[in-house]
Structure formats: C-alpha cells, structure tokens
Design goal:
Radius of gyration: 15 Å
Strand order of the largest sheet: 2-5-1-6
Structural class: alpha+beta
Helix content: 10-25%
Strand content: 35-45%
Shape: globular
Number of helices: 2
Length: 107
C-alpha cells in the first residue's frame, strides 16, 4: 500500500523479558534506530505459557513491548542482531511494513 506523502519504513515490535530491554535498546541504537517506544508490564499467553502484567516486587521479571521504526535498509541488520536474543529464551518479534509522515525523524 502506498499513500501519497508517506515514506516506507519497517516497524519492528518485540515482546521480551524486561531484564533484556537495556541490551536490546542499545542494539537498536547501534544499527541506527533513532528512537523506540517501550510499554512495560505486558501480559499475554504464548509458547512459554501465561505471563502476568507488572510484577508486584520485581519489575525486571515482567515483559516489555518495544516498538521501533527504521528505514528498510537497516531492518535486516537489526533483525539479525535480535534473533540471538530471542533464541535464548522467551520473546517474540514482529516485522511489518509501515509508512511515516516525518521520515527525517527516522534517518
């Protein structure tokens, strides 16, 4: 889908243990992601069973949803770097085409 005035980008969403957020966001920045959105206390059911939202005494055991948008030419490098993080434990990654109205924010 192409909408006039929007620039194609790649959106990468990750649901990961909160303990891994610092390492993952550092990786995102190292490949040129200019920012991300982090939503803590994510809950759901997946391959590793049910996960509650925010933990009462230990926030690091909760899950976090990270969302970033990068130019398509940077997406492959970022995905390759993220795969080992996901291979080591629980987590999921979604990669989708996106379009943005302010491409200079993402370059």
């Amino acid at each position: 889908m192409t909408i006039e005035g929007l620039t194609p980008m790649t959106k990468i969403e990750l649901v990961i243990p909160s303990a891994e957020v610092d390492a993952v966001t550092a990786l995102m920045r190292s490949v040129g992601a200019t920012g991300y959105t982090a939503l803590g206390g994510v809950s759901g059911v997946g391959h590793h069973g049910a996960h509650g939202g925010r933990m009462l005494f230990n926030d690091r055991d909760a899950l976090t949803l990270l969302i970033t948008v990068v130019p398509p030419e940077r997406a492959e490098t970022l995905v390759a770097g993220l795969r080992p993080v996901l291979a080591g434990g629980s987590g999921v990654m979604f990669v989708t085409d996106a379009a943005v109205s302010r491409p200079d924010y993402f370059r």
